[in-house]
Amino acid sequence: MKTKINVEFIDEILKGYLPKGNDKVLQAMEYSLFTGGKRFRPLLLLQTCKAVGNSVNGGAKELAAAIEFVHTYSLIHDDLPCMDNDDFRRGKRACHMQFGEATAVLAGDALLNLAVETALSGPLSSKKYQAACIFLFGKSGIGGLIHGQSLDLFTETTTVEQANDVALHKTGDLLRAALVCGAICGGANDSEITVFDDIAQKLGICYQIIDDIIDSKKCEKSFLDMFSERDLIEYAEKLSNEIKASCDSLQYDLQFIKDFCDQNLSRTK
Predict the structure, then answer these.
(1) Which ranges of the chain would DSSP assign to H, the alpha helix?
(2) In a domain, 41, yes or no
(3) Residue 153: is its pLDDT beyond 90?
(4) What are the CA-CA distances from residue 195 to residues 21, 28, 57, 201 (Å)?
(5) CATH code, 79
(6) Residue 105: is its pLDDT beyond 60?
(7) Gap between the Cα atoms of 83 and 68, Å rounded
(8) Could you tell me the residue range of the domain that residue 236 belongs to?
């Protein structure tokens, strides 16, 4: 029976690693995990693994769960009053509004810890899997996602290069982890992994561009500080075409990445 990689499949994986209990922090973790997320990071990870290796293998499920745990923790902390101060997430009350600020902090901490626990339950005897784990948590930390959040909070964005830098880290680094970890688990060689990494970096910029357009009324720092909306769309289209060309340069069926590019350009939320 072929594995159907979809949101429902991802949700079942996540439920399998989520601890059981009635603790308030656990309730907050579950609430934040299952509020209608698109799951495109774990989806891209598993689809890349399957495209390269013809199956979901090599610890890909563990890393798919781990990357979603990391992403969800970052959203909980992003919404806090000391960060972006958002009261709602995906049309529902943000975690700190639903459970209180202290519980939200702990829920985010617990999800990051759970990501590590989940990754450590994978095939650690595999050198490739070890490399994938190192890449994921490297792109989640001060050299990746957290650096991007720091740039977003504490630095001025006055040039295209600075806006790209924020997007590459705050948004792009978890996408890099998704594609690179999927490629590693599937058995891609080093030169192929480099191409997947380049694709993911451009995907990150494209995704942030559309986010900035959608959130133009509330964004304090964005690509719209340097571009008109029309020019910004053209920039995203140019990058998307480069991504598609890179996909075609590889020997695998990467239509799902091309589809993601098109879906991103047309999304409204």
Answers:
(1) 7-17, 24-33, 40-53, 60-79, 95-99, 101-120, 127-140, 145-154, 160-166, 172-186, 190-214, 229-249, 255-266
(2) yes
(3) no
(4) 43, 38, 21, 10
(5) 1.10.600.10
(6) yes
(7) 20
(8) 7-266
Contact criterion met (CB below 8 Å) for 247 and 254: yes
Show Cβ contacts of residue 225 under 8 Å, excluding neighbours closer than 6 positions. Answer: 157, 158, 163
Both structure tokens of 22: 């009635």
| Nearest partner of 49 among 195, 183, 175, 176, judged by Cα | 183
Dihedral sign, CA of 220, 223, 228, 230?
negative
Residue type, 113: N
Q: What was the pLDDT predicted at 101?
A: 96
In a domain, 188, yes or no: yes
The pTM assigned to this predicted structure is: 0.94
- Tokens 């080093």 belong to 190
- 210 domain-assigned: yes
Residue type, 39: R
- Number of domains forming the structure of the chain: 1
Q: Is residue 1 assigned to a domain?
A: no
C-alpha–C-alpha distance, residues 65 and 120, integer Å: 12
Element (H, E) at 23: none
CA 182 to chain centre: 13
pLDDT at residue 109, rounded to an integer: 98
Q: How far apart are CA 100 and CA 180, in angstroms?
A: 36
CB 71 within 8 A of CB 39: no
Instruction: Give pLDDT tens digits for 207-260.
Output: 988 988 887 766 555 677 777 888 889 999 999 999 999 999 999 999 999 999
pLDDT of 169 reads 92
What amino acid occupies position 96?
H
